[in-house]
Amino acid sequence: MTSAPVSGTEGYADEARELFTRDEGIPFADAHRAVLHLLPETIELAEAQGLHAVLNVRTASGQQDNRTAGVSWTNPAFVKAKESLQA
Fold first, then answer.
1. How far apart are the first and last CA of the chain?
2. Which of 3, 9, 17, 28 gets the highest tally of CB atoms within 10 A of its CB?
């Protein structure tokens, strides 16, 4: 049995404009509701893997609709914790 390659984008170009317009109209919190609860756990999970947060900057969204909805972004940076480097 041989399989045919599938790009996953067949027909997308025909609907791109409509999909973009529809998707841009969905508020961030609604589109990402299923994963929003995971965001605060990122630093804790990184530390469990031997990483240390050296930067944790929260910024307002660049999109006006998102700012109006209270959306902000967290931009963390991590380094390997010293005790992990000695192992």
1. 49
2. 28
User: How open is the CA angle 39-35-13, to the nearest 5 degrees?
Assistant: 120
Tokens of 51: 């990483």
Contacts of 71 (CB under 8 A, 6+ apart): 28, 29, 60, 61, 63
Q: Where are the domains of the chain?
A: 14-82
SS3 of the chain: helix, strand, coil, percent, to 5: 45, 20, 35
pLDDT in tens, 70-81: 888 878 888 986
Q: Which residue has the tokens 């973009």?
A: 20
The closest alpha carbon to 74, from 33, 35, 42, belongs to: 42
Q: Is 71 exposed, middle or buried (0-12, 13-18, 19+ CB in 10 A)?
A: middle
